[in-house]
Specification:
This protein has 228 residues and is an alpha/beta fold. It contains eight helices and nine strands. The strands form three sheets. It has a four-stranded antiparallel β-sheet, covered by helices on one side. A three-stranded parallel β-sheet has the order 4-3-5, with helices on both faces. It has a two-stranded antiparallel sheet with strand order 2-6.
């Protein structure tokens, strides 16, 4: 059996079984961020996906939090050769045309996000089996297929986050880091929850957001309740 660390044993003493109000939740979570790293503050939300008709609801969209989430992405841009220099000037970490296609084809995916111009989409289709499982396939709805490379790169660099649920209705996202102030974390949280409520389809019966948990990378999970 794996031995629990002294740090973890101390954290276990701070566990709370009942629901925690929003006014206390961020203080509790930040208090359990005791590792040396700038831990991520994460939400785990379960939504109701059962529709009265048309099968289960699947959410896949993007949201830009007021203060971002502090996560740094390595961005690659696949574009026409004449646009490569502009992509790099506008913040792309990697930019290329046929050379980048060849790199991806060989399985070298040393980036976190891939932006593609519409004109290159026909060439990237055959690489879906490589990019798809990694969640890297460019998608117009997610802002990763665009001719406005400056906007797409800036949006991702400043906190545009993809949101999607799994087959059981669970979705997870980071809303900040432990270095964020409590006020910034609360503002990001409230903004996201209001955004999520607006995504509820009309033909879903009953409560849309079933439960919400707040945690940190190395800390304890708290179930939110009360006035959220």
């Amino acid at each position: 059996m794996k031995k629990k660390s002294k740090r973890y044993k101390l954290l276990e003493k701070k566990k709370i079984r009942e629901k925690v109000g929003l006014d206390k939740s961020f203080s509790l979570v930040k208090d359990t961020c005791t590792s040396k790293m700038d831990e991520s503050i994460d939400l785990s939300v379960k939504i109701n996906t059962k529709q009265s008709k048309g099968g289960d609801f699947n959410l896949r969209t993007v949201v830009k939090l007021p203060h971002g989430n502090g996560k740094k992405f390595k961005i690659a841009v696949l574009c026409e050769q004449e646009k490569v220099d502009d992509a790099k000037k506008n913040g792309a970490d990697i930019a290329g045309s046929q050379d980048l296609l060849d790199k991806i084809s060989s399985g070298k995916l040393d980036f976190d996000k891939l932006i593609c111009t519409p004109g290159m989409m026909s060439k990237i289709g055959k690489l879906g089996k490589i990019l798809g499982p990694k969640g890297l396939m460019p998608n117009p709805k997610l802002g990763t297929v665009s001719n406005d490379l400056k906007k797409s790169i800036t949006d991702i660099k400043t906190g545009l986050i993809e949101v999607k649920n799994d087959k059981d209705g669970n979705l997870a996202l980071s809303i900040g880091r432990k270095s964020f102030t409590k006020e910034k974390l609360e503002e990001n949280y409230k903004f996201f929850i209001e955004f999520l409520k607006k995504e509820k389809p009309e033909n879903i019966k009953g409560e849309f957001i079933k439960n919400i948990f707040l945690t940190s990378t190395m800390g304890i999970s708290y179930k939110l309740g009360g006035k959220n």
